[in-house]
Amino acid sequence: MEEVFQMMDDGRLKKCTDECQKLTGEQPMDLSELPLPLLAACTNLQSLALGWCNPHIVRRLPSSIQTLLFASIDEWTQQDYRDLVAQCPSIRELALEGVVPMRLDGLRVVAAELTLAKFALQLSQNEMPEVDFGLLEVLASRSGDSLTHLHLSGLRLASRGVPLNTDGPMFPSLVELHLTDVEFEDSSVFAALVRGCRRLQTFRREGAATETILPTHFHTLIRNNAQTLEVLQVLTPGSVYQAGSFTHPFPSLRKLACSTVDALQGNLNAFIAQNGSQLERVELYDSQTDPPCIDLALVGAKCPNLVKLVLDISLTLTEIEMLVVSCKKVRKFSCFVNGHITEDLVGPIMAKRGAVTHENLLVQSAGADEGFQMHMGPVKWTHEQTDGQN
Questions:
Q1: Mean pLDDT rounded to a whole number for the chain
Q2: CB-based contacts of 205: which residues, under 8 Å, 6+ apart?
Q3: Which residue has the higher pLDDT, 25 or 380?
Q4: Is 253 within a domain?
Q5: How many domains does the chain have?
Q6: What are the angstrom distances between the C-alpha of 191 and each of 120, 203, 236, 253, 256?
Q7: Using CA atoms, how far apart are residues 95 and 354, in angstroms rounded to an integer?
Q8: Taking a C-beta distance cutoff of 8 angstroms, is the pair 370, 338 a contact?
Q9: Which residues sit opposite 69 in a β-bridge?
């Protein structure tokens, strides 16, 4: 089977169909039906991912499937969604990409009939089509207690004038919430979605969505999950931060990535002082502020376990040296640099780290106010030229 799929990846489709016939005794009518004989041969299949799917394949799926990913399902009708529920009642993890907004009624059937632990939905259009928040309420009515992972992408959640249900939590077991290119009609819709979330380990919000989340609602989410959060990533054009969002202890936080950190109102340094010891990754974007939003010496003193540090600010070689020498575990470091970088300047920086020998230093886009990036690991030093510089 692995050889067959490798042939598909390599583009040797004719040979793939021949091998498929040898394995199953059935010759596919055309390439779009290629998975059918393979599926028929896999009577105990539990996990399946298809990059493109004819609707009729749904009716041939093994009933044993528990994890399913379908991409490009823009041809599906409401009946195809019903067939999916009937054919695979044991699905616990479902990811659907390329869903056509006008056919979301079919998805309500899935949300109402399947008890899911993980659900991912990506719409097929780029303009963030509006999705009725009622779809998630249907999902919560069936899978509210069981859903641990929810990923939404490319949509705008709206109540459409229907009063939001505020009785009890929607997804109390949620540990991962990813929102990519997701807009909210207003902040109350976001508040309803995360109502009762107190176990989140990962919260990611990124993309080009217009920000409508009020800082108070964001603060409530952070406060309710400060004890369990391991990854906090908010990279959107607008700022949802407020001063109180980063004043809590985060005993489990390993990664912080955020933009427009000037909106942290001076609390970033307090956050680093309180939580720096367990941080492994820190990424700060749109952070060129005057005065600087972050105390570099504090980072060096309080973050001994950093392996990745991204600072969207200009640093001097002295400041870079201080960070690289203090944070001895750092393997990737990115910033902007004041001045020109040459081998004879960065060599001594590496020598002062001392903890690891034969480290690798990669300098990219060197030059005044241009990007500077270092990758450090147990390999020999390499130096990358960029546009004839260096």
A1: 78
A2: 179, 180, 182, 233, 234, 235, 236, 240
A3: 25
A4: no
A5: 1
A6: 20, 14, 18, 22, 22
A7: 47
A8: no
A9: 49, 95
Q: Residue 337 belongs to what domain range?
A: 307-390
Residues 168-220 have pLDDT tens digits of 899 999 999 999 999 999 999 999 999 999 999 999 998 877 778 888 888 88
Tokens representing 184 are 């909210």
| 365 occurs within a structural domain | yes
- The per-residue pLDDT for range 124-138, each reduced to its tens digit, is 766 788 999 999 999
Residue 220 lies in a domain: no
What's the rounded Cα separation, in Å, for the pair 308 and 304?
11
Residue carrying the six token digits 């990219």: 364
Alpha carbon 362 to its chain centroid, in Å, reads 26
